Automatic annotation (TrEMBL):
The name this protein goes by in its record: Winged helix DNA-binding domain-containing protein
Pfam families: AlkZ-like
InterPro entries, A to Z: AlkZ-like (IPR009351)
Assigned keywords, A-Z: DNA-binding
Molecular functions per Gene Ontology: DNA binding
Length: 385
């Protein structure tokens, strides 16, 4: 069984994730699509302290990325919205692999957040069939919760129809979902056959390994419902056939494949800094980030203010093949300024001047990406543990 050093493991992750800066081929939009082909999905998030996570994750891998690219790829039916481990944009070519979950929800095998109202769902579906694509605000209904926080029954019906596959998101308008019949959104010729358990398991294994280099069963099935047993079975079959193999990293066993290991022959560009989204694909599994990168990270916007250690929306920073800093920052729109309220540099970082020079270059690009004219760093800490 092969062993990888922790440095080799980090290199493999970064190369698999497309976070080693290199020139992508094609025009700007095709580069964005190529990022999707590498990652498989990009998580959607509503927080807009800086550019939203789905834009940020794509920009981190393609600095020719433009905010209109996602809308264009949705309009071109190259990507679509559904769930990975969370709400995400997915490759349209992978559409059929969302069907097992949709059918499980539709049949009642898998529960969703909302209770089904078959009559209301039928009425909503009929309305869209007749009137065309609609948003939640196009339906009249009262909230069922007197405190005002529960979503409207028609919104719940729309989401149930979306999650079970009768509706898809045809576009977003000012970030609001526009729902349409699935058959009107799917492009012609798309494979809409339901995969077998083995096909689905193989897809989950190889999609994960391509995007991440190596992984465990738990990592491959992270927050995915009802698939662990079938993925475990497929892993055993793939090991027996030699399509994947086991490796050792810091005494822990992982699965990988020759295609991933071949990346180790590629040079890793180390001297460029990268400011990452808290919802970046590389970071979303915090235990993995801690194990491989020795970087304990928590998004503290969900933590009460008095208990925050690093701030409301602290962004991890990658440099020299490692996670070496984090910055609590926000966009000050009236001033057109990107404000870094506090930059925390890991005490273990030795080449501070070289890092700060690389960060300054990245901050210039990040400022422009956030549609700001300038940035400021208000405070820097090197010893904060």
């Amino acid at each position: 069984m092969k062993s990888l050093s922790i440095s080799e493991a980090r290199k493999l992750v970064l190369l698999s994730q497309g976070l080693s800066p290199k020139q992508l081929k094609g025009h700007a939009l095709s580069k964005t699509l190529s990022v999707f082909c590498r990652l498989g999905y990009v998580q959607i998030d509503t927080i807009s302290v800086v550019q939203r996570a789905h834009h940020h994750t794509l920009w981190s891998r393609n600095q020719d990325y433009r905010l209109g690219h996602l809308d264009q790829l949705v309009a071109d039916r190259k990507v679509f919205e559904y769930w990975s481990h969370a709400a995400s944009y997915l490759l349209m070519d992978d559409y059929r692999f969302t069907l097992p979950r949709k059918l499980a929800i539709k049949s009642g095998v898998e529960n969703h957040w909302y209770r089904k109202d078959p009559k209301l769902m039928a009425n909503v579906l009929s309305r869209i069939e007749i009137d065309g694509p609609l948003m939640a605000k196009d339906f009249e209904s009262q909230r069922t919760n007197k405190n005002g926080w529960a979503s409207k029954p028609t919104k719940q019906a729309l989401e149930m129809l979306y999650m079970q596959g009768d509706l898809m998101i045809s576009e977003r308008r000012n970030f609001h979902k526009v729902y349409d019949l699935t058959e009107r959104v799917l492009p012609k010729g798309i494979d809409a056959s339901v995969p077998t358990q083995q096909e689905h398991g193989r897809f989950l294994v190889f999609r994960y390994l391509k995007a991440n280099g190596f992984g465990t069963l738990a990592e491959m099935t992270y927050l995915l419902k009802g698939v662990k047993a079938q993925v475990k079975c497929v892993l055993e079959q793939l090991l027996e056939s030699g399509e994947i193999e086991k490796i050792i990293i810091s005494d822990d066993e992982y699965f990988t494949c020759s295609e991933s290991l071949f990346l180790l022959n590629t040079r890793l560009t180390r001297k460029h800094a990268r400011i990452l989204s808290p919802f970046d694909n590389m970071l979303i599994q915090r235990n993995r980030t801690s194990t491989i990168f020795n970087f304990d990270y928590q998004l503290e916007c969900y933590v009460p203010a008095p208990k925050r250690k690093f701030g409301y929306f602290c962004l991890p920073i990658l440099w020299d093949g490692k996670l070496v800093a984090r910055a609590d920052c926000k966009v000050n729109k009236p001033a057109s300024k990107l404000e870094l309220m506090h930059l925390y540099v890991e005490p273990s970082l030795k080449e501070r001047d070289a890092f700060l020079a690389a960060l300054a270059q990245e901050l210039q690009a990040f400022t422009k990406f956030n549609q700001c004219g300038e940035y400021s760093i208000q405070k820097v800490s090197y010893d904060f543990y």
